[in-house]
């Protein structure tokens, strides 16, 4: 066996690649830890509106488990008096109707007045959720929002809504019993990659710099 001192040293390019891979891996898993810890905490406070982010609609307009859980949680917050109305955000995905329209059906079936449900049906991403929702909120003079989504989604969602100049609190929809640990880990790491690819989101601050 050759002594370690005699082994060929990796070239400069290879060292750079290894260093980059190490930084990237550490960055992803560090962000994943932050995403997970953030999503585990309830931050609800009184607000002007509850913003519920959409999730997949199944064939025949059937709501996915994520969509049902988010709406059940939002309805519970509405009944507590957290906010007087709901903004339901989500466009048409693989199967019609829009996520927002399906969420309104769930809300009305749970006893929320249709007049308290406003739809945003143009968005197809978290960034678009925030951008298009902000337009509706501005028209209605709403500034303080509580965003409802799955736990792993909330950090990026908050940052997107902050970039639109809104005061944002977050409230996680329960995932126990509908998502396996491996699935939660996958989506958490996926969110970390999304943040890493859009680093400007990480610097978004609440109005006033808080």
Automatic annotation (TrEMBL):
CC per GO annotation: plasma membrane
InterPro entries found in the cross-reference section: Cell_Envelope_Assoc, DUF218, Rossmann-like_a/b/a_fold
Positions of transmembrane segments: 16-35
Domain DUF218: 48-191
Keywords assigned: Membrane, Transmembrane, Transmembrane helix
Pfam families in UniProt: DUF218
Protein name listed in UniProt: YdcF family protein
Biological source species: Corallococcus exiguus
């Amino acid at each position: 066996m050759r002594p370690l001192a005699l082994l060929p040293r990796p070239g400069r390019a290879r060292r750079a690649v290894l260093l980059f891979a190490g930084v990237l891996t550490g960055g992803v898993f560090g962000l994943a830890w932050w995403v997970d810890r953030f999503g585990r905490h309830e931050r609800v406070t009184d607000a002007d509106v509850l913003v519920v982010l959409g999730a997949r609609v199944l064939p025949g307009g059937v709501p996915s488990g994520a969509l049902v859980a988010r709406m059940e949680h939002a309805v519970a917050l509405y009944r507590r008096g957290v906010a007087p109305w709901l903004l339901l955000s989500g466009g048409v995905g693989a199967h019609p109707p829009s996520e927002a329209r399906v969420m309104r059906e769930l809300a009305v079936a749970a006893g929320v007045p249709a007049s308290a449900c406003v739809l945003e049906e143009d968005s197809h991403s978290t960034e678009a959720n925030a951008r298009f929702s902000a337009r509706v909120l501005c028209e209605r003079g709403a500034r303080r929002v509580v965003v409802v989504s799955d736990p792993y989604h909330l950090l990026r969602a908050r940052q997107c809504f902050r970039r639109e100049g809104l005061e944002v609190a977050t409230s996680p929809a329960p995932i126990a019993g509908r998502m396996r640990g491996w699935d939660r880990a996958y989506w958490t790491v996926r969110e970390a990659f999304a943040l890493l690819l859009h680093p400007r989101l990480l610097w978004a601050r609440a109005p006033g710099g808080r």
